[in-house]
Design brief:
Helices cover 36% and strands 47% of the residues. It is built from four helices and seven strands; from the N terminus they run αααββαβββββ. Strands 1, 2, 3, 4, 5, 6 and 7 form a seven-stranded mixed beta sheet that branches. The protein starts with a helix and ends with a strand. The relative contact order is 0.15. The N terminus is likely disordered.
């Protein structure tokens, strides 16, 4: 009887695991990650740093186009500084190819465009910054939710008040 119970339990676990894996197919996961990306852009438009930070792991790392790495705390600090002078933000990120290299880990290419209008605190002048970027992001499933654990910028272009600029 114990052997039958163990067999039934093992089959149930295998079926549940298969259901979870099927549920997190690349196509389904792409839809889930797109929804998170949409929420991040909406939170940014509201200048809600806390909502954005809740989508990142505690050990999140961002690597910029020059190879410089920022930790989660640095990303948060920079975001708070930018949001202080931000008049408006409109962003859109499109999640492209998603791969699942191992259970609970996903990578995704994200093409994003953001338009930030800010006010220089010393002059009061408005500045419009348009940034287009492609990132390769790593996501991990933690306690039933997907969180971004790393983001590496592959390419970026920027324009300030309509003129191309080189980002530092």
């Amino acid at each position: 009887m114990k052997a039958v119970t163990a067999l039934v339990a093992a089959l149930a676990l295998a079926a549940a695991s298969a259901a979870v894996l099927a549920h997190d197919s690349p196509a389904h996961l792409r839809t889930r990650l797109q929804a998170i990306e949409n929420r991040v852009n909406a939170a940014s438009a509201r200048k809600d740093v806390n909502a954005v930070m809740r989508t990142l792991t505690t050990d999140f790392r961002a690597t910029d186009h020059r190879g410089r790495v920022m930790r989660r705390a640095q990303v948060e600090q920079q975001m708070r500084e930018v949001f202080r002078t931000l008049v408006s933000y409109e962003g859109r990120g499109v999640v492209g190819t998603v791969t699942l290299p191992r259970p609970g880990v996903a990578t995704a290419t994200v093409r994003s465009r953001g338009v930030l209008v800010s006010r220089d605190p010393s002059t009061g002048q408005r500045t419009r910054l348009e940034v287009t970027a492609v990132t390769q992001d790593t996501w991990v499933r933690t306690r039933g939710q997907w969180l971004r654990s790393a983001s590496t910028t592959r390419s970026v272009t920027a324009r300030r008040d309509g003129k191309p600029i080189e980002l530092p």
